[in-house]
Every structure is written in structure tokens, then in C-alpha cells.
């Protein structure tokens, strides 16, 4: 194991058991936060691909994609069915699709990835940086991919034994990517260790904390606001996220790292 893997432990079983409360974000999104989200930042229309997490398919990202379509973006699912194949099995196909979208639209593609989908998004950006505008991840443990409760989930989904990432893969995933990167994470994540989701300090990299669960990240109004804010930035004008006054209460610790 590398040093990061030794120091970052998976979430407790208590946090994993509490993951279901993230589903409460769905009625909250519909009943309470929708009017505020209607005022979220809007940027230049360009292609955005949204990638689902482990075991999920494009249906799981419907809330994110519908919101981004409402804001005027050219939204694409990943179109690969359930995300249950071996690591990197989908990477070449997704990278090729991103290049195709960029060439057809004439605009670079922003990537939004939830959990394992975020890890794929980062690796696509690493392979095709000329076609990717920015990468936004939600609960993606790229800094320490073994620090999770995925072993149990993988076995339930596939019936197969989980093979932990190799040292070479761990090292590669943790390296910064060559495009602007925003990591959205929650300290009450019961699936992956929140510390495993942190970008290292550096230019055009940031970590933004929200208060939900791993399951809730795709329906959580503050997370959706961050996605909108980051996508609204014109190319070449990247600045760290600073919440607008009307939503500042949602982000009490955007820079806390301890």
C-alpha cells in the first residue's frame, strides 16, 4: 500500500448503514430547493457528460442531467449501461465518445462523475485533455481508491470477489489531472472515505464540502449548485468556488481540510 492508502480508512459501518437518509434529499430538492436552484449560475452552452457510480446506470443521474438541461447545457449520459465492469474496461469507449462529441459540437466537453464515474471522468480527461473543459466529481475516491466499503457492494452487485487496486493504479489515479478539477465530497459518506476524495492543493484544483450522504450526492441541492457554478465559468477564467450570498449557508466549510 502507498502512504495515502495506509492512512485513509474506509467509512464506519454505522455511516454505511445511515446511507439511506440521503434519499431524503429527493423530496427536499423537489419541494424546497427547486425555486432557489432556478437562480443558479448559467454559462455558455456546451456539452456536458454525466457518468454514474458503481452499479448504476444513466437513470441514476436523471436529476443532475435534468437540472443541467434546464440551465441550457447539451447534456449526455454515459450510454454504457450499468457501471459494473472491471476498472478501465469502459475508459477507451468513453474517451472516444468525448472526442466525438467535442468534434461534432466544436466545444470542449465538461465531465461530471458520481463516485466511480468520477474516477472514469478523471482518467478520460487525462487521456484526452484537448477535448475536456473541466471535471467535477461527487464522492469519487481517486486519492485512495481502496479506502471504501466497495468490497461488500461489489460482491452484492456482481457475485464476484473484489480485487483491490494495484499499487500502480493507486499511484496513477491520485495524480492531478491536466484540466480544472472540482471535487465535491461529504464527511458523512458511508461508501467511500471523504479524505480519499480530496484534490491536493494546486492551481485549478479544489474541494467543496456538502452535507449529505454518498447516495444523496446526486440529488443534493448544494451539490447541484456547485456543479452549475463551476460549469458557468468561461474557459480560461477559472477561480475557486465562492458561494453566492443566497446560498452561503449551504457551504460552511468550503476550504476546511482537517
From TrEMBL:
Transmembrane stretches, start-end: none
Residues covered by the GPI inositol-deacylase PGAP1-like alpha/beta domain: 103-156
GO MF terms, alphabetically ordered: hydrolase activity, acting on ester bonds
Record Gene3D superfamilies: alpha/beta hydrolase
Lineage: Bacteria, Pseudomonadati, Pseudomonadota, Alphaproteobacteria, Hyphomicrobiales
InterPro entries, sorted: AB_hydrolase_fold, PGAP1-ab_dom-like
One Pfam match: PGAP1
Protein name: PGAP1-like protein
Amino acid at each position: 500500500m502507498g502512504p495515502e492508502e495506509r492512512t485513509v480508512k474506509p467509512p464506519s459501518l454505522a455511516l454505511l448503514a445511515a446511507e439511506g437518509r440521503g434519499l431524503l434529499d429527493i423530496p427536499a430538492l423537489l419541494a424546497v430547493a427547486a425555486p432557489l436552484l432556478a437562480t443558479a449560475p448559467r454559462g455558455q452552452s456546451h456539452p456536458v457528460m454525466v457518468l454514474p457510480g458503481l452499479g448504476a446506470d444513466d437513470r441514476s443521474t436523471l436529476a443532475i442531467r435534468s437540472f443541467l438541461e434546464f440551465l441550457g447545457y447539451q447534456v449526455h449520459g454515459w450510454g454504457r449501461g450499468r457501471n459494473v465492469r472491471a476498472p478501465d474496461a469502459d475508459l477507451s469507449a468513453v474517451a472516444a465518445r468525448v472526442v466525438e462529441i467535442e468534434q461534432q459540437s466544436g466545444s470542449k466537453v465538461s465531465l461530471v462523475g458520481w463516485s466511480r464515474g468520477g474516477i472514469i471522468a478523471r482518467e478520460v480527461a487525462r487521456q484526452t485533455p484537448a477535448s475536456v473543459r473541466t471535471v467535477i466529481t461527487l464522492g469519487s475516491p481517486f486519492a485512495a481508491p481502496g479506502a471504501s466499503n466497495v468490497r461488500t457492494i461489489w460482491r452484492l452487485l456482481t457475485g464476484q470477489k473484489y480485487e483491490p487496486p494495484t499499487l500502480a493504479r493507486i499511484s496513477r489515479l491520485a495524480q492531478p489531472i491536466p484540466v480544472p478539477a472540482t471535487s465535491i465530497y461529504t464527511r458523512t459518506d458511508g461508501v467511500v472515505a471523504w479524505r480519499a476524495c480530496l484534490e491536493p492543493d494546486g492551481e485549478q484544483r479544489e474541494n467543496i464540502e456538502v452535507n449529505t450522504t454518498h447516495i444523496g450526492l446526486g440529488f443534493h441541492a448544494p451539490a447541484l449548485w456547485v456543479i452549475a457554478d463551476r460549469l458557468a465559468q468561461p474557459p480560461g477564467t477559472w477561480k475557486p468556488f465562492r458561494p453566492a450570498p443566497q446560498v452561503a449557508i449551504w457551504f460552511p466549510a468550503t476550504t476546511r481540510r482537517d
